[in-house]
Amino acid sequence: MQYVGIQTQKSRNNIRSLLLLFLFPCLVVGMVFLFCYILVQLTANTQQIDLWQTTLDMFVEIAPYAIGGVLIWFIIAYLTNTRIINSATGARPLERKANKRVYNLVENLCMAQGMDMPKINIIEDHSLNAFASGINKQSYTVTVSRGLIDKLNDEELEAVIAHELSHIRNNDVRLLIISIVFVGIFSMIAQVALRTVYYSSRSRNSRSEKGNGTIVIILAALIVAAIGYFFSILMRFAISRKREYLADAGAAEMTKNPLALASALRKISNDPDIEAVTREDVAQLFIEHPGKQSKSALSGLSGLFATHPPIKERIRVLEQF
Q1: C-alpha distances out from residue 216 to 37, 162, 167, 210, Å
Q2: Alpha helices, DSSP H only, in the chain?
Q3: CA 17/CA 20 separation, integer angstroms
């Protein structure tokens, strides 16, 4: 794998973050315009009206409300991302007095790298996993599971912590948080659309006007759901899987002990399942995908849609350092 420096990786992640921030409102505008176009096509007599002008008029009327609502939603989700992630993972602050070993490892690594000390959280689960999160120095957090603390020795635990600190140093976490917020918004839109289809279908009757109205709702809802799902896939492609290799390399550089991380990854691969984690967007934060929810209809396509590279390959690369 071609070597990529820390500053280069930071720059790439900053550019990707800006691109995603630009792409998001563009996609919202496109979805609103497409919805208006289909609505006009299905409900209006296209022989008697100017199709594009009518669509544009409807779009101008609807767009400010749709974009404003989604923007407010994004701001709230962006500012409350820490609370959302903690709720989705069951994480809570790790008490310093009872866990001096963990705090000492984190502090030593941060002092050696000239980094600010992140917050430390714990997931009370006996499986082995960890992740980093946050968007700035005030919210950066390293979260570890109880199993990770209990089952790894000092060198292995230090290597895992160094891996998560590398994600913070490389600005990976900020990019991932933005993707989680975006995917969450479009997933919610898709769910609302599908529920609208369901309840509209249940309440329709034999009157043709009602039937036509239901067809319009169904088509519009399915388009929104399809775009939201497709966007979720694009978001995962935008977050390069190389970030894990680079964080592994960063951990090896920090600790001068790549074999310790290889050993830790081997233990983690045997039991990474965190039961509290059921959201796929949050799962991509972890050092290894946290369990059974990774299996889906797409999982058989040779890992094409995977958010993590194969852990065996990561171990092989580390053992060649």
Answers
A1: 11, 53, 45, 10
A2: 6-43, 51-79, 81-89, 100-113, 146-151, 154-169, 172-203, 208-238, 242-255, 258-270, 280-283, 311-319
A3: 5
Q: Count of domains in the chain?
A: 1
In the prediction, which pLDDT does 233 show? 65
**Which pTM value belongs to this model?**
0.78
Is residue 282 within 8 Å of 275, Cβ to Cβ? no
Residue 119, SS3 per DSSP: strand
Cα separation values, 283 from 125, 253, 274, Å: 15, 26, 9
Structure-token match 């296209």, residue found: 46
Q: Which structure tokens are listed for 3?
A: 């070597």
Lowest-pLDDT choice from 5-14, 264-273, 282-291: 5-14
244 is catalytic: no
**Is 201 within 8 Å of 218 (Cβ atoms)?**
yes
Residue at 214: amino acid letter: T
Which position has the token pair 């479009």? Answer: 186
CA dist 266 and 263 (Å) reads 5
Which residues, 6 or more positions from 243, have their beta carbon under 8 angstroms from its beta carbon?
Answer: 9, 167, 170, 172
Task: Identify the burial level of 61 via C-beta atoms within 10 angstroms of its C-beta, where 0-12 means exposed, 13-18 middle and 19 or more buried.
Answer: exposed
Closest CA to 180 of 42, 284, 104: 284
Contact 255/315 with Cβ under 8 angstroms?
no
How many C-beta neighbours within 10 Å does residue 105 have?
20
The residue annotated as part of the active site, out of 164, 253, 313, 319, is 164
**How many Cβ atoms from other residues are within 10 Å of residue 179's Cβ?**
23
pLDDT single digits (tens) 114-151: 999 999 999 999 999 999 999 888 999 999 999 999 99
Domain that holds residue 24: 1-321
